[in-house]
Amino acid sequence: MKRFWSLFLTGSLTIAVALSGCSGNGSKANEATSGTKDAGNAGKDEITLYTIQSTNPKFKDWLKEAQEKSGVKINWVAAPTDSDTRQQKVSTILSSGDNTVDILEINDEMATSFKNAGWLEPLQDTVLADDVLKQLPQGYMKDMLTSSKGDLIGVPSYTGYLGLWVDQKKLDAAGMTSINNEEDFVKFMKATTKDGQYGYGGSWEKTYVFNEIATFVNLFGGDYFDWSNEGSRRAVKFMYDMANTWKVTPVDQIADKYEQMNQKFIDGKYASVFMWGTGTDYKQADRYGEDQIHMINMPKFAKRSIFTDSWSYVLNSASKNKDAAIKFLKYAASEDGELSGWKNFDRYPARADVAAKEAVTGDIKTVYNEIQSTNEVHGRPMLPQTMEFISEMGTLFQNYIQDKITLDDFCKKAQEAVERYK
Fold this sequence. Notes:
Radius of gyration: 22 Å
Distance between the termini: 9 Å
Shape: globular
Oligomer: single chain
Helix content: 40-55%
Strand content: 5-15%
Structural class: alpha/beta
Number of helices: 19
């Protein structure tokens, strides 16, 4: 662990703590953006939020409601869109004791990396009361947001499944009504691969493909931390066959992140993808619907299995505005806060009681309920040296897909990576 933070911070701390180039809201936010804000001079009920949502068209609506209902003035700083840069920025803020940012939105990768570092304020005694906590996904809270000391360090802002999305028009053209198992999945991919179009599209860039590898490992009953497991080996061989044997997915997608994958899916190049969330990109492109792009239940290979994730709000332990920050976090964890996330950001409520409300409607609720009742639901398998592990596994996978190494080589080196970063 010490080796990781020594190497990681040597690089990340060379990045200026100043967050130049980010958007802000009002003079205080502009000061936070430039890194010159004196947090000690902030108002009693004022915080600075480091957010991934500032480019969302409804961010201002969400912000207005959050300020009104929390009673807290919220300045904001926009997080970088690039995952590596974003993780480095957040690491710099937290590790350096920078108090210009109070609340941050972090993903599972960052939660795994930071939850035991002492940089995040425990929330179980101030925000996550028993009546709230019992409504949150328990496995996810344990796997992702609980430190080795038992502290709860984050408020999940939604529940999001890495689900299977299909283009219904292509399913119809293949003469199929459903994809229930491995045989159906392969049949569908082969039937819809033609004329420069593919049955499956992936996000196989080295820091993104982890999600799909781990999904197939679970479907085949494998173990992402055990590469002698036959299910794990079968999963990666299956992905190799998709690209090289059956040629139902393109090898050149090793350069693609979600942005590129989603656009190709929207454009009709792919018949199916694994993707997070509730289909926001497809809705914005007018490609969402039961007769177009929609989510279906996971097919059963060795079993049905799916990952859930979240972006979570965390409290910087260096914050000088903790009382105001806790007010915001209580709002974020409340029914009003979760419904605002659903209304403005299409974030499916993390709290089961809120998700059951009549205000949460639509076909996505139906498929989410089906997934909950038929699948094993997991948090993603991550190790403390998160991004190093993810990147190395992604590079090994890309080498295997491109025939630079064999399956045995991949499994041997993958196991070495597990042991190194564990």
